């Protein structure tokens, strides 16, 4: 009888071990599907884009069975915390503010931001330094921000809600501007093209992608922005968890697996290749 009990206990332990491993091997990844070329949908509604393809490559490296699901941007982090999916790959920059709520993998791509206007706009000839890192201190940063304050005073600038771009505009670094918020980047682009806003702020590639696909004369102006409020690259968002609990250990393992997979994908040139395909340049970190 004692032997039978030990056998049953051993079988039960093996069952739960296999179940936990199977669960860990199945990962759901949330993306927006409305931020091309990072992530978007084709005519049939299929999710496509740089991050969709990168997610598939990372999952193959990790040997995880992955499902990529669509989630509105403004509900992205709440949905992750509610365990609707296990990771975020949605052009989400790694910022100190977000790190208070979730963990991030190492960065897999840089996302420089830019202002955009329509050709013929009074802002189309705005001259500043080519790139501005807000992580640096010095005269160039102050001088450029002062130039932007003068040029943008009283202007209406469109931005997707809940983004680093909104945070920057509302920080006061570029003075008093009228910030018009939109649910999606597509809505920002449409109002910019229609002349309902003076300018827009987003990832530079979001505007160049829109211009190329729509044929609209969108012009990037001012500097490209990085660092500071714009974060430290784009990474995979993962839940913070109690490492002593089963679910917390699983989240920690997922984070570790993504970091290892990103390293492998970088070394093999996979990230560079996908970035050049979708962005037209190597945005890998």
Notes on the protein architecture:
- The chain is 42% helix and 20% strand.
- By secondary structure, the chain is α/β, with parallel strands linked by helices.
- Helix 6 links the parallel strand 9 and strand 10.
- It is globular, with a radius of gyration of 22 Å.
Architecture blueprint of SSEs:
Blueprint: H1 2-25, E1 26-31, E2 40-41, E3 47-48, H2 50-62, E4 65-70, H3 76-81, E5 87-88, H4 96-99, E6 102-104, E7 113-118, E8 131-133, H5 139-152, E9 156-160, H6 164-170, E10 178-182, H7 185-193, E11 199-203, H8 204-214, E12 218-226, E13 237-239, H9 246-267, H10 270-279
Parallel strand pairs: 1-4, 1-5, 8-12, 9-10, 9-11
Antiparallel strand pairs: 2-3, 5-13, 6-13, 7-11, 7-12
């Amino acid at each position: 009888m004692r032997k039978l009990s030990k056998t049953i206990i051993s079988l039960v332990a093996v069952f739960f071990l296999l179940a936990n491993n199977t669960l860990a091997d199945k990962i759901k990844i949330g993306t927006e599907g409305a931020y091309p070329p990072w992530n978007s949908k084709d005519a049939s509604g299929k999710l496509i884009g740089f991050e969709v393809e990168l997610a598939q490559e990372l999952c193959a490296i990790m040997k995880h069975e992955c499902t990529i699901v669509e989630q509105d941007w403004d509900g992205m982090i709440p949905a992750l915390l509610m365990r609707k999916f296990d990771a975020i790959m949605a052009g989400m920059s790694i910022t100190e503010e977000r790190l208070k709520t979730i963990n991030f993998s190492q960065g897999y791509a840089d996302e420089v931001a830019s202002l955009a206007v329509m050709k013929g706009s009074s802002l189309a000839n705005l001259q500043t330094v080519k790139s501005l890192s807000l992580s640096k201190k010095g005269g160039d940063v102050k001088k450029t921000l002062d130039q932007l304050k003068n040029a943008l005073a009283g202007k209406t600038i469109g931005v997707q809600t809940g983004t680093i771009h909104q945070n920057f505009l509302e920080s006061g670094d570029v003075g008093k501007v009228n910030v018009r918020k939109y649910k999606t980047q597509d809505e920002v682009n449409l109002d910019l093209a229609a002349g309902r806003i003076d300018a827009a702020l987003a990832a530079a590639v979001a505007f160049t992608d829109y211009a190329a696909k729509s044929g609209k004369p969108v012009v990037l102006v001012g500097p490209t922005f990085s660092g500071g409020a714009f974060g430290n690259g784009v990474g995979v968002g993962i839940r913070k968890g109690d490492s002593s609990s089963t679910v917390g250990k699983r989240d920690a393992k997922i984070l570790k697996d993504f970091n290892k997979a990103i390293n492998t994908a970088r070394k093999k040139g996979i990230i560079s290749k996908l970035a050049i395909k979708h962005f037209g340049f190597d945005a890998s970190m």
